[in-house]
């Protein structure tokens, strides 16, 4: 073989290798990425009890969470409380700066009812409380960030709990008074409202089981009374808004429901039916009365609870009935569908012998669904939260089908860990979940926004400070509660800024972050760095492969041109 021939052959071999690599290079550079719609509402969220602290600052009243954490610290994983937490009552200017740094368009936060109405009634209104939220709203507007305000994120004034809380119909006019005060004080500047965050948690976890405050642990009865009053209270507030404020103030008002995606455990008709039934109990309980064509609770729920109540010897259904007028009054009372979702359950039916051993009666027994998770799914800092990205797609498509494609805002989505700043698993979570949001958009779901949970580490309810959801790290040992962006904050900001997912953007720690890391207790830095070793290695490999192929391309071109 002549030298020339040898060179030619090796050139051909090289070119084919290069072409092969070139595909890898272009696909990793992602020359034609999918974009989110131009006006997609990017946001980040928090809630008052979780971040504010200042539990008795100025004339704030006691909430059911103050009461529970002070009187029953044994109910909280680390016996902590939200007395100080991230101390946003004092550091709200820094909070807004962080929201600004994230390039989001909206900040979803909640107002603490007892901070502005200490006893829950209009007879006592706190000027300090109103000033606090007013200044926060003005600061957001100064940065051109739309405030998205939740009226109720679980902070009921304790005095109202002593009246039975959400199980007492008296809550309806009281909630309306509170909402009216918010609309009067802030409605000129707030364009997006949600009435109530996660009614299912408020009612079932608050009254049915010993979980969220007030932790009644009274299964099968009060949760349904709670839901009934809550739906009416929500509807009255939306009607008041539409009749008296909306035209003048020009905003919109919705509600935020929550659920995991309910994946059939197998493809059997029974498991698929269990999936549909679970979604009707978790989402439909509140979604059907507001968003369905006919209104009212889902028929499955009405039938099952009526039948089971009868079997159990009750003289009427434990699920209260709406009148025809009430059904009409509640139907259609939302300008958008807010949904919080984090994870997925595998579901199958409970059998007639109640082999799942649910209490009788109880919400779980009424629903008749047994939930589990695949141990192979990626875990997180919370036992209940496993990473199953396709769940968000399935859920968005289910809402589209079930409720005639309403405008949806994902009002919470995110993942926990146990601390640290190098949170590459959180980066993966957002990339993967958002990729499935893009799929849902392409398949016609009317998704208008995505709000990451959460702006910063905060008080995670029963888990205390043991589980972290923040894009920003908060140093709870520092009296100033210093906040530092995690890796995920920089990645999420990049997504919001560019309107697309950049799979290759995996920055390493910058100086600010390295300094902050050095101040953390050893426990936090080690738990964070486990994930980092792996992903940094694959990142380096990526870079190496890319540079090599580029060198080869240049060499080949040089030879070809000779
Ligand atoms: C409830 O009972 C009625 C009458 O016995 C029956 O036709 C119906 O199928 C039952 N519904 C459910 C969901 O069990
Ligand atoms: C329910 O229990 C009865 C009596 O113990 C038994 O005969 C039946 O097989 C059980 N059914 C199921 C679905 O487990
Ligand atoms: C988990 O993965 C293992 C190995 O791939 C597989 O054998 C097992 O069935 C999986 N578990 C579940 C619950 O799917």
Automatic annotation (TrEMBL):
Xref: Pfam families: Glyco_hydro_1 (PF00232)
Biological process according to GO: carbohydrate catabolic process
Annotated InterPro entries: GH (IPR017853), GH_1_N_CS (IPR033132), Glyco_hydro_1 (IPR001360)
Entry keywords, A to Z: Glycosidase, Hydrolase, Signal
Catalytic activity: beta-D-galactosyl-(1<->1')-N-octadecanoylsphing-4-enine + H2O = N-octadecanoylsphing-4-enine + D-galactose; Hydrolysis of terminal, non-reducing beta-D-glucosyl residues with release of beta-D-glucose; beta-D-galactosyl-(1<->1)-sphing-4-enine + H2O = sphing-4-enine + D-galactose; a beta-D-xylosyl-(1<->1')-N-acylsphing-4-enine + cholesterol = cholesteryl 3-beta-D-xyloside + an N-acylsphing-4-enine
UniProt entry tagged with the keyword Signal: yes
Keyword DNA-binding: no
Gene3D superfamilies registered for this protein in UniProt: Glycosidases
EC number in record: 3.2.1.21, 3.2.1.46
Molecular function per GO: beta-glucosidase activity; galactosylceramidase activity
Signal peptide start and end residues: 1-27
Family per similarity comment: Belongs to the glycosyl hydrolase 1 family. Klotho subfamily.
Name of the molecule in the record: Cytosolic beta-glucosidase
Source organism of this protein record: Musca domestica (House fly)
Phylogenetic classification of the source organism: Eukaryota, Metazoa, Ecdysozoa, Arthropoda, Hexapoda
């Amino acid at each position: 073989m002549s030298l020339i021939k040898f060179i030619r052959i090796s050139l051909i071999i090289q070119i084919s290798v290069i072409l092969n690599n070139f595909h890898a290079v272009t696909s990793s550079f992602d020359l034609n990425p999918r974009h989110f719609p131009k006006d997609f509402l990017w946001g980040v969220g928090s809630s008052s009890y979780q971040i504010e602290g200042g539990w008795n600052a100025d004339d704030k009243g006691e909430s059911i969470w103050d009461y529970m954490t002070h009187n029953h610290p044994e109910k909280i994983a680390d016996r902590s409380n939200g007395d100080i937490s991230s101390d946003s009552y004092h550091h709200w200017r820094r909070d807004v700066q962080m929201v600004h740094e994230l390039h989001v368009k909206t900040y979803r936060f909640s107002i603490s009812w007892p901070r502005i109405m200490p006893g829950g009634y209009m007879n006592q209104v706190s000027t300090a409380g109103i000033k606090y939220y007013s200044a926060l709203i003005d600061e957001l507007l100064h940065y051109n960030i739309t405030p998205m305000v939740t009226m109720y994120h679980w902070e009921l004034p304790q005095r109202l709990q002593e009246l039975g809380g959400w199980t007492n119909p008296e809550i309806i006019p009281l909630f309306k008074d509170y909402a009216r005060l918010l609309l009067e004080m802030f409605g000129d500047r707030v364009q997006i409202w949600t009435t109530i965050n996660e009614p299912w948690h408020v009612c079932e976890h608050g009254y049915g089981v010993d979980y969220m405050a007030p932790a009644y642990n009274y299964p099968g009865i009060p949760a349904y009374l709670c839901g009934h009053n809550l739906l009416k209270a929500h509807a009255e507030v939306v009607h008041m808004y539409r009749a008296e404020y909306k035209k003048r103030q020009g905003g919109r008002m919705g509600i935020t429901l929550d659920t995991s995606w309910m994946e059939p455990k197998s493809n059997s008709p029974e498991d698929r039916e269990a999936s549909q039934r679970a979604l009707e109990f978790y989402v439909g309980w509140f979604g059907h009365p507001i968003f369905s064509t006919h209104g009212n609770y889902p028929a499955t729920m009405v039938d099952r609870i009526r039948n089971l109540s009868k079997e159990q010897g009750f003289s009427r259904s434990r699920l209260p009935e709406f009148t025809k007028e009430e059904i009409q009054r509640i139907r259609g009372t939302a300008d958008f569908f807010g949904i919080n979702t984090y994870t997925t359950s595998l579901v199958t039916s409970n059998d007639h012998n109640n082999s799942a051993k649910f209490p009788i009666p109880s919400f779980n027994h009424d629903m008749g669904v047994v939930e589990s998770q695949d141990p192979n799914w990626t875990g997180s800092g919370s036992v209940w939260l496993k990473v199953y990205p396709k769940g968000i797609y399935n859920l968005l498509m289910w809402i589209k089908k079930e409720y005639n494609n309403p405008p949806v805002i994902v009002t919470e989505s995110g993942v926990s860990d146990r601390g640290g700043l190098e949170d590459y698993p959180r980066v993966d979570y957002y990339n993967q979940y958002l990729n499935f949001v893009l799929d849902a958009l392409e398949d016609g779901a009317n998704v208008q926004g995505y709000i990451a949970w959460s702006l910063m580490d905060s008080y995670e309810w029963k888990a205390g400070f043991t589980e972290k959801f923040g894009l920003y790290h908060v140093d709870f040992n520092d009296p100033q509660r210093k906040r530092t962006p995690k890796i995920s904050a920089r990645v999420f900001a990049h997504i919001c800024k560019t309107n697309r997912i950049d799979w290759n953007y995996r920055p390493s720690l910058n100086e600010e972050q390295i300094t902050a890391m050095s101040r953390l207790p050893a426990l936090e830095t080690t738990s964070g760095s486990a994930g980092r070793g792996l992903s940094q290695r694959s990142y380096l490999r990526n870079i190496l492969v890319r540079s090599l192929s580029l060198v080869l391309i240049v060499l080949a071109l040089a030879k070809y041109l000779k």
